[in-house]
Specification:
Strand order of the largest sheet: 1-4-2-3
Structural class: alpha+beta
Strand content: 5-15%
Number of strands: 4
Radius of gyration: 32 Å
Number of helices: 6
Oligomer: single chain
Largest sheet: 4 strands, antiparallel
């Protein structure tokens, strides 16, 4: 009789162990399935995000060549027809460019017209940042200016008959070759995904005054 009771208890214990093992197994399977589904969903989200990002990059990519409407000759004429003023004089007379969009060209006259081209939707705010330790200006320009180098600036306000700011900036950089190791620019400007390295720099002297 005692043996029968012990057998029944052992059977119950074994049954409980089996049931517990089944529950643990099911829980593990559920966790694995949920993890797989999560990974698949995350992979699809990342793929969709990358596709949208690539589409955006493709639509905003700056071409590495001039087009027929805004040729290199067009940019040459724009640069030559824009007046050149000293940096100090320009910085003191930027009130007329408050919230004016456009591009600007900075010439380091002490470094054989080492050039920087930039763009802004508020020229009066952006241009001075390169000559002070405030904001996100070009630190190399600031260091050269602080070291005593002489600078001159050309301001080019944006007009409706011009390309958009990204393309205007890229065209000026390409024309002036300011993204070479002789210039301050490191790429074709905002919106560009490719960098055009120019080894030989041959810029007409009259561009720099």
């Amino acid at each position: 009789m005692v043996y029968s009771v012990v057998n029944i208890q052992d059977t119950h214990n074994n049954l409980y162990t089996i049931i517990a093992a089944i529950f643990v197994g099911v829980a593990i399977v559920v966790v694995i399935v949920c993890w797989i589904r999560y990974r698949r969903k995350r992979k699809n989200i990342i793929a969709a995000h990358n596709e949208e990002r690539n589409k955006f990059k493709a639509s905003n990519k700056i071409p590495l060549t001039f087009d027929s409407e805004f040729s290199q000759a067009w940019f040459n004429n724009l640069i030559q027809s824009t007046s050149l003023v000293s940096a100090d004089g320009c910085l003191q007379n930027l009130n007329n460019y408050q919230w004016v969009s456009g591009c600007y060209i900075i010439f380091n006259k002490s470094e054989h017209d080492k050039i920087y081209v930039g763009q802004s939707k508020n020229l009066a705010l952006r241009v001075p940042q390169h000559f002070s330790n405030e904001g996100h200006g070009n630190k190399r320009i600031y260091n050269d200016y602080r070291g005593g180098d002489k600078f001159e600036i050309k301001i080019i306000p944006w007009k409706k008959d011009m390309p958009d700011l990204n393309r205007l900036e890229a065209g000026l950089i390409r024309t002036l070759k300011s993204d070479s190791y002789y210039g301050y620019n490191r790429s074709l400007g905002r919106g560009s995904s490719d960098k055009e390295i120019i080894v030989k720099r041959d810029i007409p002297h009259e561009w720099g005054g």
